[in-house]
Amino acid sequence: MTARITVLGTGYLGATHAACMAELGHDVLGVDLDPAKLAKLQAGEVPFYEPGLQEVLQRNLAAGRLRFTASYEEAAAWSDVHFLAVGTPQKKGELGSDLTAVESVIDQLGPLLREPAVIFGKSTVPVGTAARLGAAVRELAPAGDAVELAWNPEFLREGFGVQDTLHPDRLVLGLDRDNPGSGRAEAVAREIYAKLLAEDIPFLVTDLATAELVKAAANAFLATKISFINVMSDVCEAAGADVTTLADALGYDGRIGRGFLNAGIGFGGGCLPKDIRAFMARAGELGVGQTMAFLREVDSVNMGRRAAMVERTRNAIGGSLLGARIAVLGAAFKPDSDDVRDSPALNVAGQMQLHGAAVSVYDPKAMDNSRRLFPTLTYASSALDACAQADAVLVLTEWAEFRTMSPELLAQQVRNKVIIDGRNCLEPQQWRQHGWTYLGVGRP
Ligand code: UDX
To answer: Domain holding 257: CATH number?
Structure first.
């Protein structure tokens, strides 16, 4: 069955969702206030780097299943099923999340809903938000109680957005059982996701609060795993053990799993850091801040990894960063992304510059975004260029291009053959064989 849906917000989440829903065969209208973004999308251009998304976008524009508009009037008149997919960044100077965009969508859409409608929230919001937004939209809408608000959190990873949307690990749908509206949300979701359900992807139907919490808890757990293995890497260094083998061995235990056990300079990006902070803030409001205190430690362990990398570099080059030339390979918060939001790599680069080092940065995709965020760093046009006359080479994002670099070739560029692997993504032996001092994280 073909559904007619709108996706409100065409940032990373919304653009991916809109294109993928069209790929499932639905008629999709993407709505955004930013005319530049809309023009790009309408022309088949993805405004950020996401492997595979451009093809899906272009294919569905060409098929006439997907288009974009700035008009909420058009959206409300065209469909009665709306996905809310705007961003919820961290508030400036506070741990909580900034819900301005989510609230503004409701304020704009609500008064236009004259007929029964279903709104699916996808944005990551503090638990309790969906119930509040539901009450607000019923108040604003001429259709009143016939408007149903449900929550359908997304779990997509940057770099795997298409795959994670079309073949997710699970689908979660939270329903407002006290305010069922037209009572159609579950049936509509089953229709929209019919192809996914046919693949036997687990579909969990629950209440609004649980649906909102699934996302917060999943990210908190993932962040905890990373900080756990990073703490273990310190223990490994103290004991002369190898954290990579430790993680492999732990990973074979099905209860633990190998995923998210890579030690290094820790997690960053537009999601994990802000989501665990928003979760802590919300837990505090709910009166369970104390039991969630461990998340503060998870966050603090994570932020400490960045300073530790600066220290490691300082020690590796003889005790002072002042006047040293440092090559930083990688600026994105993870490979296959051009996203530098809260990127550990850029943060380390910035800190080293503040300590007086001359830092030269190269990233395969994130150069423009990095320049915007950190205009004072020096940017090189290739990995080799960045390493010219370097006293140390730091690999801070595990791009394939860096994993396969030739130690011999690089040796001709640098002043000192010191390589520091902030992501444990290189083969230590291979580098040592060619006379390099190799330093990983938690590896002997
Ligand atoms: C994350 C969640 O995975 C996703 O489910 C959620 O919807 C949004 O947040 P994303 O931000 O795209 O997705 O990145 P992810 O792949 O989870 O990586 C987050 C950070 O953790 C990166 O900086 C990465 O380098 C780091 N990381 C990841 C580690 O340091 N070690 C690991 O073992 C895994």
So the answer is: 3.40.50.720
